[in-house]
Amino acid sequence: MSRRFHLALHPYGVGGPGQHGLWKDPSIAKNASIDIQYYIRQAQAAEHALFDALFIVDSQFINAGYPPHYLNRLEPLTLLSAVATHTRHLGLVGTASSTYNSPFNLARRFGSLDHISGGRAGWNVVTSFDTGTSRNYGLEEHLDYTTRYGRALESVNVVRGLWDSYEDDAFPADVESGVFLDPEKLHALNHVGDHFRVDGPLNLSRSPQGQPVIFQAGVSEEGRDLAAQVAEGIYAPGGTLENAREYYADIKRRTAEAGRNPDHIKIFIHGSPVVRGTDELAQQRADRIADEDYDFRASLALLGRAFGAHDFSQYDLDAPFPDVAHLAERGGRTGAAHIIAQAEERKLTLRQVVENFTERRESPFVGSPETVADTISRWFDAGTFDGINVAFRNDEDLKYFVEGVVPLLQQRGLFRTEYEANTLRGNLGLPIPVNRHTAERIPVGAR
Fold first, then answer.
1. Per-residue H/E/C for 368-391
2. Is omega for the bond preceding 201 within 30 degrees of 0, making it cis?
């Protein structure tokens, strides 16, 4: 089968980073971010359009300057477990921190979601962007980059080991013989590493897809290396076609160098398509969205996230950008370092930094259905992504995309006309991982 395009939906409730005016939209309920019916409707619309997955982001620290959606939102695994009972095919990908969760707890929670959904769970592994999270977990300071990514790699490996606690045929449940469990098919992990000691086994069997799908969203060198080693799906930043193509090629190269099949890692870029009947109407809609979201004060507060939720309102806006490099190492280091470098090179004031780094970035996917489908096709053929993680302003914008663009992609053979499988792995074209203990009994030549 020819290469197919994938779609994930990224709902943002009352408004995430940069969406400062979304909560004011009369079509958006003011409690959308904590209304499970909102997420169920979003998921069902995505499933009706044959999307691959629903993607739920998360963080565990806020202050009053954070985006509206971040201030009041549901915990991802709880949310997705509810959505699972109202969908049949849609993948359910939740974000959880490897820095502030134990591997056993993660393995059990995502394994449970995988069973509840019949094999549709995915774990988006993050190391936690917000430095203030540490103080919500009894720690004085956030772990440094090297420690966080070393912990993340070990955490994923431990979780995968726990997911293999039972072999697929561990439960004969034979009434006549009185054997419920074959004890030889149950395996303790007995892991001792740099960051964790976990005995196991996990008290949960494998799901129809073997293990939940591992996603990751790293942009830094450490993040890209982690993705190449463990990720099966990636949420990439996107940017220009050239930026996206460079990232795509780099991740595929690193994956091959790690001894993995590059086709077994699916890269999704972020996208916010704006579709209307004509290019002109779509551009007008995109312009209105940009106008609704312009809020300098909110952008100033948002800038602080990359620097450990630092309060930039204390500085003179028209003075040189302050020396805050020491705040970046344990926060959003890659993004913060880029901001600092640009501020120094161009001698920017704080006001100019806010205006430059929170300025409107036009989505490449704006236009009529034909224009947007053409752009998606061109980017896809250019080797920039395997799919797009799309976000829409409201239900009307989602509808324009689903009813206008998706059929054109289907006509071109780029997008499915029916689901290939009942599991997330099956729809992404990813293999079911063989249980490691079962594999040990398979002759090398037969694997």
1. CHHHHHHHHHHHHHCCCCCEEEEC
2. yes
48/407 Cα distance (integer angstroms): 12
Instruction: Give the span between the Cα atoms of 198 and 192, in whole angstroms.
Output: 7
Tens of pLDDT, residue by residue over 244-299, are: 999 999 999 999 999 999 999 999 999 999 999 999 999 999 999 999 999 999 99
State the residue for tokens 């259905």. Answer: 369
Whole-angstrom distance, CA of residue 280 vs CA of residue 272: 17
Say how far apart CA 28 and CA 15 lie, in whole Å. 10
Please state the domain extents for the chain: 6-280+364-440, 295-357
Measured in whole angstroms, the distance separating CA 307 from the mean position of its chain's CA atoms is 22
Q: Which CATH superfamily is domain 6-280+364-440 in?
A: Luciferase-like domain (3.20.20.30)
Buried b (16+ CB within 10 A) or exposed e, 312-342: beebeeeeebbebeebbebbbbebbeebbee
Residue identified by tokens 């870029």 is: 269
The CA distance from 41 to 45, in Å, is 6
Judged against a pLDDT cut of 90, whether residue 307 lies above it is answered with no
Global pTM reads 0.93
Contact by Cβ (8 Å): 230, 125: yes
Q: What is the pLDDT of residues 80-101, one digit of tens each?
A: 999 999 999 999 999 999 999 9
